Amino acid sequence: MKIAVVGTGYVGLVSGTCFAETGNNVTCIDIDSEKVNKLSNGEITIYEPGLEKIFLRNTREGRLKFTTNLEDGIKDASIIFLALPTPPGEDGSADLKYVLGVASQLGKILKPNDYKVIVDKSTVPVGTADKVRQAILSSSNNTLVCGDNGAFEVVSNPEFLREGVAIDDFMKPDRVVIGANSEKAKKVMGDLYQPFVRQGNPIIYMDEKSAELTKYAANSFLATKISFMNEIALLCEKLDANVDMVRKGIGSDDRIGKRFLFPGIGYGGSCFPKDVQALIKSSDEVNYDFKILKAVEDVNEKQKLHLMPKINAYFNNDLKGKHFALWGLSFKPNTDDIREAPALYIIDALTDAGATVTAFDPEGMANVKKQIGDKINYAENQYEALQHADALIIATEWNEFRTPEFDKIETSLKNKAIFDGRNLFEVNEVRAKGFHYESIGRN
User: Is 297 found in the same domain as 155?
Assistant: First the structure.
């Protein structure tokens, strides 16, 4: 098949590359000429394990191309994916200006006798497919017809990619959700995804609004599990229980499952915070008070700074002039994404209190430097970050942090103090080495 993907951000680049990997001819379109030039020259613009290898293979073999010209990019495509940003507005609602802007452009380009399936791949509020359809029709002055026998149809096909394992998620999806009312569009989309579900995982067809809500519901449920477990962790601290034991005890129940039960300093990234906000906003718009999700959001905001009272107590509520080593800046391991990363909230709290910070992250430092500049110092490796620090704070669970050389930590720090926001170490083992060790839900 010939496919166009509008937008070369995280979802667009991963989707376009993976579609090319199964033999499709893919053209990715972006208005950012600098980014398009880099991609055209084989320079990947995001960090995602496993992506570069298949990106280079498919660009080399001519199945994956890039352009800034929308009309040229979609000319021969039978399917056009809209993988555009939907950033949260000030009120928490998803901003559709990019999605609807491209839809309006398409209305001026599409031809009546050249059927194309327009696919909302971006995470969008319920009703967006209708808005995209109307934007296309309006900008065409109603010269186009939508439907099986028309010029186009609009489909909702939400993505369920986890940063850090997105290639596996795309190539071997748990499920593919396709929201469409058109039988012709369902057939086109089913044929496209058939190579990805050969192991028997389902393609689930539904109406567009249900598909749009499915994405928000999935991410919001996972965010709820995380916040629930963080609440349990805080209760464990009050009751002198061990959250690790509780996690194992409830995770063995297959109705609950083992995943997303690890407590920490809150979730971040580009999906959970934005999607929870957007679903709350959508609920408010139809006069439904989504109490659970509002509590989830509140718990997560507080959880990002849960280490600060522990740090303040250790230093007698005086952080002025103190210097901290910070391991981890990205919101999770195996990504350079720092959006809503708890580390950034900790940095703000420390510097507001008069402390200084030296940080190390395997992938996220360049993005943090773009965002906050020289507000903190940046180290070449995790041990360099420890030099002259009063204590170590761990904010991201990168594998290389899991088995450190504790002798190096001891000799580098002024105080043998570790504040672990990701519960990387066994409490008794670290304390047996003489460290003051604080974690989440494990007194």
Answer: no
Strand duo 356-360 + 323-327: pairing: parallel
- Please give the full DSSP string across 342-353, using - where no structure is assigned: HHHHHHHHHHHT
Residue 443 lies in a domain: no
Same-domain status, 149 and 245: no
- pLDDT tens digits, 139-154: 998 888 898 888 899 9
Q: pLDDT band for 20, please (50, 70, 90 cuts).
A: very high
Q: What angle do CA 190, 87, 328 make, to 5 degrees?
A: 100
Q: Is 271 a catalytic residue?
A: yes
Q: Which two tokens stand for residue 357?
A: 């910070």
Q: Which is catalytic among the residues 18, 28, 236, 271?
A: 271
Structural domain boundaries enclosing 134:
2-206
Q: Of all helices (H) and strands (E), which one includes residue 77?
A: none
Where among 302, 332, 354 does a domain terminate?
Answer: 302
What 428-431 contacts at long range (C-beta under 8 Å, 24+ apart), as own/partner pairs, is: 430/406
Extended beta strands in 73-187, E state = 79-82, 116-120, 152-156, 176-179
No. of helices (H) and no. of strands (E), the chain: 17, 14
pTM: 0.92
Q: Percent of the chain scored above 90 by pLDDT?
A: 94
